[in-house]
């Protein structure tokens, strides 16, 4: 069985680090959640969600355990050895095999991290609030691998073509990095608005932290309505799953 549509990162992580982002294709949810919605907090039918999650799980070894989050746009990070009830954090780290760290997105940026030996992985849910709060810094600091042994990949998020923000968001983001992020905001067509580049902001932060291998999917969830859910575009809509796990012993 081919299973639902998926995006596999193009990055320098070792082969036994498995990472993936689902798209909206391949599920059973009805509009406005059509079709592969994996979130249970958006108003979709629980039958459809459980059917979709079964399809997702069928794509992976059945020994894999799944850690989901109640994402709160904060800066808290959990280090886990096994999966349990959803955690109210926006960053997850594991050093254990077979533990999937999962984030749900529909515009926010998922940041994937792995050590180049493949003995440690992490995933971050990074919207502008989390970026300002320091979710990327907190996650990287909690990882045991030195930053220069980490590789990063940025999954699909809303692009600078569609992520319009006000002056107060721009100011907070720029202040969070001592003024260095001004280049991540372009003047918008609407008066006193700016187009924010989440990829640019996250890349800057990762490079500042000493991670030199940063690649990105470089798509826009808002632009590509066939493939992606977008909260900005549709309001009531589904969520894609972004996940990472260790599938074998370290190199
Ligand atoms: Zn766009």
Description:
This protein has a single domain (6-143, 150-158, 214-246), classed as CNF1/YfiH-like putative cysteine hydrolases (4-Layer Sandwich), CATH 3.60.140.10. The protein is 20% helix and 26% strand. The protein has helices spanning 46-57, 128-133, 135-142, 167-175, 198-208, 231-234; strands at residues 6-7, 17-22, 65-67, 77-80, 91-94, 99-105, 109-115, 121-126, 150-154, 164-166, 185-187, 193-196, 213-216, 240-246. Strand 11 and strand 12 form a beta hairpin.
Question: Can you summarize this structure?
Answer:
By secondary structure, this protein is of the alpha+beta class. 20% of the residues lie in helices and 26% in strands.
Apparent shape: globular
Oligomer: single chain
Q: Into how many domains do the coordinates divide?
A: 1
CATH fold naming = CNF1/YfiH-like putative cysteine hydrolases
Q: Which stretches of 5+ consecutive residues score pLDDT under 50?
A: none
User: If helices are DSSP runs of H or I spanning 4 or more residues, what is the number of helices?
Assistant: 6
Strand order of the largest sheet: 4-5-8-7-9-13
Order of helices and strands: EEHEEEEEEHHEEHEEHEHE
Average of the residue pLDDT scores: 96
Give the CATH H-level superfamily.
Answer: CNF1/YfiH-like putative cysteine hydrolases
What percent of residues adopt helix (DSSP H or I)?
10-25%
Ligand types? zinc ion
In CATH, the architecture is: 4-Layer Sandwich
Secondary structural class: alpha+beta
- Look at the structure and give the CATH class: Alpha Beta
Topology:
Elements: E1 6-7, E2 17-22, H1 46-57, E3 65-67, E4 77-80, E5 91-94, E6 99-105, E7 109-115, E8 121-126, H2 128-133, H3 135-142, E9 150-154, E10 164-166, H4 167-175, E11 185-187, E12 193-196, H5 198-208, E13 213-216, H6 231-234, E14 240-246
Parallel strand pairs: 3-6, 4-5, 9-13
Antiparallel strand pairs: 1-2, 2-14, 5-8, 6-14, 7-8, 7-9, 10-12, 11-12
Residues 159, 161-162, 220, 222-223 line the site of zinc ion.
């Amino acid at each position: 069985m081919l299973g639902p549509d998926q995006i596999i990162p193009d990055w320098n992580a070792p082969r036994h680090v498995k990472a993936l982002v689902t798209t909206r294709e391949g599920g059973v949810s009805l509009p406005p959640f059509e079709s592969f919605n994996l979130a249970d907090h958006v108003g979709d039918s629980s039958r459809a969600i459980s059917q979709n999650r079964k399809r997702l799980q069928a794509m992976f070894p059945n020994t894999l355990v799944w850690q989901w989050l109640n994402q709160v746009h904060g800066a808290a990070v959990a280090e886990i050895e096994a999966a349990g009830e959803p955690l109210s954090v926006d960053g997850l780290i594991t050093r254990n095999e077979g533990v999937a760290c999962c984030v749900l997105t529909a515009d926010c940026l998922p940041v994937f991290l792995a050590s180049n030996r493949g003995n440690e992985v992490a995933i971050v849910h990074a919207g502008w609030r989390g970026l300002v709060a320091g979710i990327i810094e907190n996650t990287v600091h909690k990882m045991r691998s030195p930053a220069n042994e980490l590789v990063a990949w940025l999954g699909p998020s809303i692009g600078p073509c569609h992520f319009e923000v006000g002056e107060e968001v721009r100011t907070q983001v720029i202040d969070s990095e001592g003024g260095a992020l001004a280049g991540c905001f372009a003047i918008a067509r609407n008066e006193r608005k700016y187009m924010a580049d989440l990829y640019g902001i996250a890349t800057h932060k990762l490079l500042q932290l000493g991670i030199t291998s940063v690649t990105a999917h470089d798509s826009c969830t808002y632009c590509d309505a066939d493939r992606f859910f977008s909260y900005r575009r549709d309001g009531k809509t589904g969520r894609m799953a972004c996940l990472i796990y260790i599938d074998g012993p370290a190199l």
